[in-house]
Amino acid sequence: MKLSEIKEILPTLENVEFQLEDGTFVPEHFHVTEVGTVNKHFIDCGGTIRNEKVVNFQLWNADDFEHRLKPGKLLNIIKLSEEKLGIEDDEIEVEYQNTTIGKFDLEFNGKNFILKNKTTACLAKDACGIPSEKQKISLSELSSKQNSGCTPNSGCC
Fold first, then answer.
1. 130 — pLDDT class (breaks 50, 70, 90)
2. Domain range for residue 83?
3. Is residue 67 domain-resident?
4. Quick count: other Cβ atoms within 10 Å of Cβ 155?
């Protein structure tokens, strides 16, 4: 989800709720403690130099159980970060601590913001020596594709 998308969604909501992919919710008393830009400048294992940039939201749970972040307040935090930091309309990455700090992509299901699990991947598989995945076919397809004249009880086997 890009920053412009969350800015369009927030005014339509009564509450801001974040939910993990497994269905559990971020406690409703969470805070958005940071909004910023994260730039990653790196080289992959194939030698290609890459740049990635995301808008980062950090969610944090405090012991103030009565706290509720309203959509207008989050929108104001986003607008302030755009003004003061020059944040652009990039993809959003959310940091949230469960057992460790996790990084999540963000989606919206029509009611809640969904923290989508991120995974690692090799960006240079051809240079890494990773074999390409073998094509999987069923044995029934294999036998029907063979055009040998050999049939059961023909004596050719």
1. confident
2. 3-119
3. yes
4. 6
| pTM of the predicted model as reported, rounded to 2 decimal places | 0.78
Tell the residue number behind the tokens 């919710």, with chain if given: 25
CA-to-CA distance for 7 and 88, rounded, in angstroms?
Answer: 12
The conformation of residue 135, written as its DSSP 8-state character, comes to: P
> Residue 45's closest CA among 130, 122, 119?
122
Rounded Cα distance between 127 and 102, Å, is 29
How many domains are there within the chain? 1
- Tokens 């005014």 sit at which residue? 11
| Residue 147 tokens, joined | 């055009």
Binning the chain into helix, strand and coil, the percentages to the nearest 5 are 25, 35, 45
Amino acid, res. 71: P
Which helix (H) or strand (E) segment holds residue 39: the answer is strand 30-43
The neighbouring-strand residues paired with 105 are: 93, 116
